[in-house]
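Q: Could you fold this chain for me?
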Amino acid sequence: MKDVALGSCFHDVAYVVTDVGRAAARLSALVPGTAFSITWIALRSVDSNNPQARASEPIELQCAAAPVGPHGEYEIRLLQPLNRDPVFHGAIAAAGPGLHHAGFCVSDLDRAAQRMARHGVPIAHLRDEDGRRHLYYRCDPIGGLIELSSGQDGAPPPVEAAAGSLAAHFTQIAYVVDDIDAARRWMEEALGCEVMAARDVVQGPAWNLRFRGQPVGYDFSLKMVVGRLGPTGQGQLELLEPQRNNNVLADFLRDHGPGLNHIAFAVPDYEQLTRPLRSTGVPALKEIHVPGTVHSSYFDCSRDELGTIEVFETGPHA
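A: Sure. Below is the predicted structure, expressed as structure tokens.
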């Protein structure tokens, strides 16, 4: 039996938050078309070699989930820990709320786990009340956590995002890394992602580059690799290694180390679809605008525990 590329089974991106109702309401305002349903989840350890772990209290979470993407094929999940567990509450205690992991839904979990075990460090094996298993791996080349869960490969949620909304244009998850060659090897070998773009990028005054609203008078360079993601291959996993100078991506690397940095929406009309974001006063960490070529902004939603959201438009109408 041929292995299914794990990258094609991408299902969700998850945040850890301190108040799931507040975070869901805020994200719905920032990203119109996200309709969250909230459920309670209990996860128990499935560590057969550790009787104490098996007998411990379950990890309890409140989970808000909303379908996103052109066909609602992905989910954004907001997870509020209700007890002091090491995986979810521990992440908030160590690094604060925000982006936590990328989730992949697979039909043959044991086969997928064998593959991931060669490319990541297992940190938890959990089972929910419906019997579904959830495996979490620390993956050092990208500085992030990966979840494998049992189910249909890349199974889409039953409800689609609102057509024409910003939520329907969910496109990408992006990692800032300190060694893009190692991160690319991991992406290709662990997830089986096809690389669709790899290049060095230089941005600066010619791109009308701004950091935190201020014009930048020098060139800023970064290495970028983009891989195909999701059941249709239309999603993207982006890897970014920034130049170590005065820039917001290097600041993230210095303050947090490599890891999951932002989610992104590729839109046909930047001005229209960013209006709700801009009207809330959410500041832009980084913006580039070359009329007729590209308009992109990284919006700083960290005060709402929602990390960074990028919206970009490319083409003659940008």
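A (continued): The domain at 168-314 is CATH 3.10.180.10 (2,3-Dihydroxybiphenyl 1,2-Dioxygenase; domain 1).
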